[in-house]
Amino acid sequence: MPFPIKVCTICSEEFELRPDKPGFANRCPACSTPEADDSSATHRMDAIERKTTAEANEARRQAIRELLYRKDS
Q: So which domain of life are we looking at (predicted)?
C-alpha cells in the first residue's frame, strides 16, 4: 500500500507521508526539522535572580490561594 502524497505548506513540494516521519503531517521532512538549538539561549541564573524568581512565584501562589479560598462575606 503506497503512502499518501501530501503537499508541504511551507515550500509547496510534494512528499510521502510516512508513519515514522518526524514533525508535522503537513510539512515535508526538510521543513519539519527543528531549528538549530542555540546553546546561548539558555540563560544561567545567579543566586539573586533565583531568589527573586522564587519570591515572585511564592507571592503569585499566595495571591492565587487567597483568591481561591477566601470566604465570601
A: Bacteria
Go through the chain and tell me how many residues it has: 73
For residue 7, what are the β-bridge partners? Answer: 14
Residue 50 — very low, low, confident or very high, per pLDDT cuts 50/70/90? very high
Residue 27 C-beta-side C-alpha neighbours within 13 Å: 10
Residue 26 near residue 13 (C-beta atoms within 8 A): no
Q: Where are the domains of the chain?
A: 1-32
pLDDT of residue 17: 87
Cell of 28: 515535508
Phi and psi at residue 4, to the nearest 5°: -65, 145
The answer, yes or no, to whether residue 55 has pLDDT greater than 80, is yes
Residue 26: how many other CB atoms lie within 10 Å: 13
